[in-house]
Amino acid sequence: MDRYVKFVKERTEVEQAYAKQLRSLVKKYLPKRPAKDDPESKFSQQQSFVQLLQEVNDFAGQRELVAENLSVQVCLELAKYSQEMKQERKMHFQEGRRAQQQLESGFKQLENSKRKFERDCREAEKAAQTAERLDQDINATKADVEKAKQQAHLRSHMAEESKNEYAAQLQRFNRDQAHFYFSQMPQIFDKLQDMDERRATHLGAGYGLLSEAELQVVPIIAKCLEGMKVAAEAVDAKKDSQVLIELHKSGFARPGDVEFEDFSQPMNRVPSDSSLGTPSDGRPELRGSSRSRAKRWPFGKKNKPRPPPLSPLGGPLPSALPNGPPSPRSGLDPLAILSEISKSVKPRLASFRSLRGSRGTVVTEDFSHLPPEQQRKRLQQQLEERNRELQKEIDQREALKKMKDVYEKTPQMGDPASLEPRITETLNNIERLKLEGRGRPAWLTDGGSRVLSNRGDTLGRHTRPPDPPASAPPDSSSSNNGSQDNKESSEEPPAEEGQDAPIYTEFDEDFEEEPASPIGHCVAIYHFEGSSEGTISMAEGEDLSLMEEDKGDGWTRVRRKQGGEGYVPTSYLRVTLN
């Protein structure tokens, strides 16, 4: 029984170690981030894996339950019963030992009476022989003969008494011995036998508890295995594909077909999608745009910033206007410009990793560094977080007000003035969150418009508006700003088409739309001569209608009272929103 208890104890240690290792394994592979912050949690394969880990964790719990049941029902109970059996066996052994000692004591008394009887018989025989010899001796006196006869008679009487005592002791010993072997010892052995049979019965029951502990958890373990099977069947490849698409779709439109370019007529070539720096709608993109839209090739090399376009003389392309934003037109030969660009910059294909984000990407507050769809999602997520924080602060303020009312009604519960700092802090947090949240809907609308229209108006405008002058419009130094921003342009270098070709037609789409109502008004601080396409001229002090706010590129769309719409530098305006 002790050996079995030791075996079960080691078995429980094995079960506990097994369960502990399973739990450690589950903890190692469980997602560290909460489900709402982990994009992978949206995939069915990840959900099935988490469910499988939970089932393994439940399985580990059942192994711990088996170990606990074995420890309580088997180890403790059998160990306790084993101690009781040891005490009972010790008592039976002591009883048998006492009976045996009594028998041994009777046997010693029998041996003593036997030896005494033997000694008395020898002495009586010796005394009889002495008396007979003196009786036959003629020289012996009568007194000596009588004395010898009396001595022989005394020894004979003593031997007779020893004989009777020996016989009685022998009869007593035989009776005690028979009682010991036929009564006492069988009873003791019967008790030991009964004890051992009860021990064997309990040991067999202990063997049964080993299997019983396993059978108790079999239904739950079967449910765990069934849960693993259900988790395996829940993996939906099609659904995961759609989730992956929803998570990583960029919102960019697919480019159009590449058209043939006829270089036999270099000055009057037809613009096409294959033209370097030409958008997919067939209109060439503005050369030098600080945010030129480059094609994103899924399996190419990583994006690298390229140097600004060079003129045939080796310098940056000059600005067309001395006092305005750099003009997209140029009087130079477009083939020569294209040749110089091809020599200085080798077009690179965008990396597939760029769709997932690059280490060198500059993260902006409005997530404009992301594709339109990703920007919309991030802005929506940020807006929801702001709303949750705002609602939390509002609830806290209401709770503090209620607590203050309670304190005012029952002053013994607390001082109402002690809550004022916390109420003030809560109000400040609410105002701060409201102030931070005002710009979010505009960003979200901008991100959504990028997804719907996929035009990227803010990406296809002029490079950078001129800085506001101290007393007069800026000079040709604005071209330097444009050339510096050209260094930040992405991917494909632009190409000039020809003197008669519409170089900048990005604004045509804007003007073809239905007339929109003004969102505010503005006053021109400086004179601006809008000679490039898409811009509009304005005089200093002129009142204008604000049609579209600055999207971050430094240009604002306005409408003149005399008619006509176009873009002017934001820094040249004093803007008032409706």
From TrEMBL:
It comes from the Eukaryota. The keyword Cell membrane applies. Residues 369-446 form the REM-1 domain. One of its GO terms (biological process) is signal transduction. Residues 517-578 form the SH3 domain. Residues 265-278 have a biased composition (Polar residues). Its main location: membrane. Residues 290-305 have a biased composition (Basic residues). Residues 312-322 have a biased composition (Low complexity). PROSITE patterns: F_BAR, REM_1, SH3. GO terms for cellular component: cell cortex; cytoskeleton; lysosome; plasma membrane. Residues 100-151, 373-410 form a coiled coil. Keywords: Cell membrane, Coiled coil, Cytoplasm, Endocytosis, Lipid-binding, Lysosome, Membrane, SH3 domain. This is Thyroid hormone receptor interactor 10. It comes from Sus scrofa.
